[in-house]
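Annotated sample (chain length 308).
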Amino acid sequence: MAGHRGMVGKALLRALDSNGVKDVICKTRNELDLCDQRAVNNFFQSERPDCVLFAAAKVGGIHSNNTYPAEFIYHNLSMATNAIHAAFENKVPRFLFLGSTCIYPRMAPQPMPETCLLSGPLEKTNEAYAIAKIAGLKMCEFYRKQYGVLYHSAMPTNLYGPGDNYHPENSHVLPALIRRFHEAKQDNSSEVVIWGTGSPRREFLHVDDLASGVLHLCTLSNPPDLVNIGTGNDVTILELATQIADVVGYQGEIKTDPQRPDGTPVKRTDMNLMHSTGWNSKISLQEGLKMTYDHFLQEAQDGKLRAV
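Output written by the structure step:
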């Protein structure tokens, strides 16, 4: 399990544990730097796992992606290429690479099918991250094609849930809004300003649903090279903000800031391929937001709230 300390990695560990999988190899960044090719080779030579779940990534929202593109492409590209090649060299039979739906073109058809990959220009605000993820999934595809190894990829839509990052600037939109509305409620603020026009449409998947989907893919003897994992449903950012305000109990005014970037106008996954394998998401956005805010409050109370 690469990336076991992140939100996705922790959800995968919970799912593995509930399914009786106990023998999971995890290493912290200090124990194994995935950007260090020699260290990664030595790790695979020593451990030789049966399967790799690759959830390691340097991630962030529009602000951090747009501000630190060199860091995003270097770290994500290095980690992916090092891990995939070292796994192959050491005869690891199965490798599941996790990416993101930001790999699809900015003006992709909606909902976005897997076949639209590389059919148009990427969204500029997260181009560096997307290129690194595309390289990783294509590596898995080509190693499978040339060498016959079972290396495949899953592209989750926007994720949220326990263990999310609540940094006021570097986090994704959903956790950023949870924190903003929570603090506004505490401070009795009369208004909350959200970035952009509020009109872009986004799809959100609870991270425990993602973990369920990933483990489902690992049971398939012939999974797709690339498959979306999402709900197939989307909302506008303003609608999302309104729902979060309701869950938090904030009763002030919600304003938009059109001077801030919106990002891609619409992002919704075509879920036909994943559904055809026998999997569907189960957690509704309303239910997921309530669960996530409860986790936010508990993490804040315990002093474990991530804000990096």
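Annotation: The chain has one domain: 7-301.
Annotation: The domain at 7-301 is CATH 3.40.50.720 (Rossmann fold).
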